[in-house]
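ugh ok fine here u go
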Amino acid sequence: MDPVDLTRRIEPGMPVYPGDPGVTAEASATMDDDGYRVTHLSFTTHVGTHIDAPAHMEPDGATLDAFDVGDFRFAARLVDLAGDADADRGLDAREPVTPAVLPDGDALDADTDMLVLRTGWGDHWGEERYFDHPYLTAAAARHVADLGCAVGLDTINPDPTPTDRAGDDEPEGVPAHHELLGAGRFVVENLRLPGTLPERFVLRSFPLRVDADGAPVRAVAADR
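structure:
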């Protein structure tokens, strides 16, 4: 298996969490004026393909500097929830994902420490529909945490993202985040998950070296 880049490009106009500032990229030095190029980038710690540290949601949660670089290498198991559109299977907009559709410990290799969930919503990247992705119930997030696993997603959020299409029965706040980050499990969001990925692979998801609540990553899948 050749390395596969699962990272979204950081660029102006890209999707960001509703209410967050967008990405800007401005020249602070140019070849014509200065003889070299330097670009001033501005974005949040949770832009594009990024990792959430526990400090993102937990008052006493660890920041990225509390972890060794090896902690960002995961033995990943792909869980394909997208189904087959031709067979009328898959997830609907804003559909809750329950523990029943996730593997249990008996179905995982002993070293598995991340479940990568393909919901199919990555196909809507750049569309308004992207924000109406399926989401993990608190019980599903607790199930993943109890397995000793982090979670990777092709969505912007493991919880429902607020839009004017949200349902009255959706959970308030960020219970899935709290279940995962409160247990010290990472969340990697906005992964690009091509259909050619094998069921098992190593995911290297190295964040920028910044002591923060999260950071953009270069997420790369390769052989175990």
